[in-house]
Amino acid sequence: MERKFIDLHSHSTVSDGSESPTTVVRTAAVDKNLKALALSDHDTVEGLDEAYAEAEKHEGFELIPAIEISAEYGDGTIHILGYFLDRHSPELLAKLKVLQDAREERNPQIIAKLNELGMEITEEEVAEIAGKGVIGRPHIARALINRGHVKNTEEAFDKYLAKNGPAYINKERFSQADSIKMIHDAGGVAVLAHPKYVHGGDLKGVEELIASMAEQGLDGLEVFYSSHNKKEVKWFKELADKYGLIATGGSDFHGVTKPDIEIGTGMGNLKVSYEEIIPKLREKAKSYQ
Ligand code: AMP
Ligand code: ZN
Ligand code: FE
Ligand code: FE
């Protein structure tokens, strides 16, 4: 069967996904018969070499080098996806190192807070759960689950880890403009991820953010997303058109961390077209290369 559909948002074990880059790519190429997949781990491109090695084995399948960067937004954070960037760019790698170091500083502080709150978890435990990759709050949530302090990831975030929660620790991030620039400088296009989740879903606030990011050089908006309903897709598509942004889409697959999301199909209804998106993204990326 001809490959037609794509997934431009996925995570592996090098950040907070549960599956290796090889497995993520194989699932996309074989089980889901996708035409393209972007592996977009948080603040790291370290999974891409392994992902390419697997992608080459599947005819007609394309791996799109990607990243998901946490950037400043008021006193919180937004996620910016980068596509077609040069994963070997020394400038990019140096900036990512800053973000990774900020995580390394934050994680022990979160664990210390949890200990103070009476929950015994250790840095070693969390490191073991995370494996060799970038450590994130979902790994800390997993440690809390394993110890029986909470039932699931949602509860861990709701009770402790979410912004304003008792174990929340802010971490250093780059501004939106600097994050967009760091993607452009590495030859990639910058796309605002899951707009549904910025500004607590307040649509007027989201439009203001999109307008201001468009002025700072944002190239695209993640219109198609696992948990966007039809109305939200329509609304975000209109905003993408209004501000001259390419409408992209992806599942945000994380494996068992988000068990109801599958590669390519999301929660069942996701369908993202290669033809309508990839040529535009590629052309835009060329303008930065
Ligand atoms: P971190 O990278 O450590 O800031 O953690 C961010 C990740 O935690 C996000 O990419 C989500 O996968 C996950 N996350 C954030 N908020 C929640 C939530 N309320 N429930 C479940 N997972 C969440
Ligand atoms: Zn994640
Ligand atoms: Fe995200
Ligand atoms: Fe993501």
Question: Can you tell me about this structure?
Answer:
This protein is α/β, with parallel strands linked by helices and 289 residues long. It folds into two domains: 5-91 and 174-286, Metal-dependent hydrolases (TIM Barrel); 96-161, DNA polymerase, domain 1 (Orthogonal Bundle). The chain is built from ten helices and seven strands. The protein has a seven-stranded mixed sheet with strand order 1-2-3-4-5-6-7. The longest helix is centred in the middle third of the chain and has 27 residues, at 90-116. The mean pLDDT is 95. Adenosine monophosphate (AMP) binds next to α5 and α6.
Helix content: 40-55%
> Superfamily at the CATH H level of the largest domain?
Metal-dependent hydrolases
CATH topology of the largest domain: TIM Barrel
- Hetero ligands: adenosine monophosphate, zinc ion, fe (iii) ion
Overall pLDDT: 95
The radius of gyration is 18 Å
From the spread of the alpha carbons, the general shape counts as globular
Can you tag this structure with a few keywords?
single chain, binds adenosine monophosphate, DNA polymerase, domain 1, binds zinc ion, binds fe (iii) ion, 7 strands, 7-stranded mixed beta sheet, 2 domains, TIM Barrel
SSE blueprint and pairings:
Layout: E1 6-7, H1 21-31, E2 36-39, H2 48-55, E3 62-73, E4 76-83, H3 90-116, H4 123-130, H5 137-146, H6 153-161, H7 176-185, E5 189-192, H8 203-215, E6 220-225, H9 230-242, E7 246-250, H10 274-286
Parallel strand pairs: 1-2, 2-3, 5-6, 6-7
Antiparallel strand pairs: 3-4, 4-5
Helix pairs in contact: 1-2, 4-5, 5-6
Bound molecules: adenosine monophosphate, zinc ion and fe (iii) ion (FE) (2 copies).
Adenosine monophosphate binds at residues 16, 42, 136-138, 153-154, 157, 162.
